[in-house]
Design goal:
Rossmann fold; 5 helices; binds 1,3,4-trihydroxy-5-OXO-cyclohexanecarboxylic acid; 3-dehydroquinate dehydratase activity; DHquinase_II
């Protein structure tokens, strides 16, 4: 099973960036733990972090036909990007939207997502654990009757 993990803008700053909101672990720490967990479960996890919308879109397109599941923290693009929504719809790959923080407990502009209604699920407010729950769901999807 091929899982694509995408992290959007400013998530490269994890560990340094507002640690009271986003925690002390770096993105590298988080991705390494997820890769180990995926490998232990017989899956392959590929990761891209980008601050550029088009790079995330290009990566989604490149996975057409060979990606089984996408886990995405779109960062601020969550609240702005129709293009990212359309890219995810264009490849028909199930995806889970993850946010480290509870976006609903923050500024009103973070309450709306352009992706949430077409996601299989949304996990927010659970920090790094949210990515691990998303990975478990992806793995179970891979074992399911429709895999
Ligand atoms: C975020 C929440 C977004 O509102 C914000 O722009 C981010 C990170 C999160 O993981 O909590 O960059 O996606």
């Amino acid at each position: 099973m091929n899982i694509l993990l995408l992290n959007g803008p400013n998530l490269n700053m994890l560990g340094k960036r507002e640690p009271e909101v986003y925690g002390h672990r770096t993105l590298q720490d988080i991705v390494q733990a997820l890769k180990e967990s995926a490998t232990a479960n017989g899956a392959r996890l590929e990761h891209l972090q980008s601050n550029a919308e088009h790079e995330l879109i290009d990566k989604i397109h490149a996975g057409f036909g060979n990606t089984d599941f996408i886990i995405i923290n779109p960062g601020a693009f969550t609240h702005t990007s129709v293009a990212l929504r359309d890219a995810l719809l264009s490849v028909s790959v199930p995806f889970i939207e993850v946010h480290l923080s509870n976006v609903h407990a923050r500024e009103p502009f973070r309450h709306h997502s352009y992706l949430a209604d077409v996601a299989q699920g949304v996990i927010c407010g659970l920090g790094e654990q949210g990515y691990h729950f998303a990975l478990q769901a992806a793995l179970q999807h891979g074992n399911g009757p429709h895999s």
